Amino acid sequence: MTTLLAIDWTVAGVKTLQFILSFSILVTLHELGHFVAARIFKCRVEKFYLFFNPWFSLWKKKIGETEYGIGWVPFGGYVKISGMIDESMDKEQMKQPPKPYEFRSKPAWQRLIIMVAGVVVNLLLGFFIYAMMLWHWGEEYIPTNQMTYGIAADSLAQSVGFKNGDKVVSADGEYIDRFSKIPLAVVLNSAKTVQVQRNGQPVNIVIPEDFPGKLISYKDINFIDIRVPLAPIDSISGDTTAAYKAGLRKGDQILSVNDTSVAFLNDFRILLQHNKNKTIHLKILRGNDTSTVQLHVPASGMIGISNGEPSKFFQVKTINYTFLESIPAGFKKSWETLVSYWLQLKLIFSGKVNTNESLGSVISIGKMFPSEWDWQSFWSITAFFSLVLALMNILPIPGLDGGHALFTVAELVSGRKPSDRFMEISQMVGMVLLLGLMAYALGLDFWRLFK
């Protein structure tokens, strides 16, 4: 119970609201894809629901032939199309002769379009969000050769030979301009070596074969980060933050934590994470005077201070896009995201990663959102999950869109339609597996919370 009581409910509330809004957008538009395609081919749609509604609905209203509603189980949503074997498992309807407005009476090519329409919408949505983000905010990154203070290496990175302050030169002998892509080169492209400069001397770091699996098990593929100096506090996010309550103010320079000198932001964050739910002593410099303050570190490990923009410390490269330029750039970013996620799935399926450590439910997804409302982060995460939702749904698993599409493609090729009984059993098996997987993932997340 101690862990649960220590949750920062303000942070949890902000993350939850962002998750609900993002998930609602993704699910609603996914199901809208099925709905529109079904209506184009004159199929009757009986229900359109955001979230599942076993036993009762939070809200519902019938308009025309369709009942629109909001369920209470936030694991997805659905449209119930007449004459289709789906989550509802409406066997009584399937016993009746096919009617012209039913899904099962339509040609196979129309049924295939209806089934993949949701996936197509999610692909287009992810691409659209990325393109509009690039058009509105542009793209900023710190070139690898401009990292004045080198890297901050976590414990796993240090275990293979990286050290704080190393300056990355190349991966497998190839210079990578965007530092953020170096961890991906190691994890996804299986880079064998990383070349760094240490104290002016070249050092070749050999990456073990099992390192990518360890990183994903560790839940963080960013094993090296940009080393940033701990500058005077640039801003404090509000008067309810731990920093403000402790008496810290804009312009204060933090010198030490519990008498341990700290010069870099990365080291300061590590010390905060190691002292969650504890009171620490900070030595600060304010003007010409030094003093000590006591600060209680919340369960999140975040105290509400900003170090300032990266441009204060580094030469930041900015790419601005016109509307027309943002379209191919958004497509490229979407494709790279899909390839990256697919390669991560391959790592999991290959057995190199412990599934128990990689699997998560809506709780894990919700934690990915920032602790403060940030529209740029919100849309970035929403675009990512839109593409992930498309990729996961097209997998040829019974119960998912990809399973239905697979059977329809087989029908187009063979000219033989699977029997209703076969489709019922396949749907039932698929739903049992998927619900079991969701329950297992949720159980893992609750276990991690208590742990």
UniProtKB/TrEMBL annotation:
Its cofactor is Zn(2+). GO terms for cellular component: membrane. It is found in: Membrane. Residues 233-262 form the PDZ domain. One of its GO terms (molecular function) is metal ion binding. Its main location: membrane. It is a multi-pass membrane protein. Keywords: Hydrolase, Membrane, Metal-binding, Metalloprotease, Protease, Transmembrane, Transmembrane helix, Zinc. Pfam families: PDZ_6, Peptidase_M50. PROSITE patterns: PDZ (PS50106). It comes from the Bacteria. GO terms for biological process: proteolysis. The chain crosses the membrane at residues 20-41, 112-137, 377-395, 425-443. Its EC number is 3.4.24.-. InterPro entries: PDZ, PDZ_6, PDZ_sf, Pept_M50_Zn, Peptidase_M50. PANTHER family: MEMBRANE METALLOPROTEASE ARASP2, CHLOROPLASTIC-RELATED, REGULATOR OF SIGMA-E PROTEASE RSEP. Belongs to the peptidase M50B family. This is Zinc metalloprotease. It comes from Ilyomonas limi. The gene is rseP.
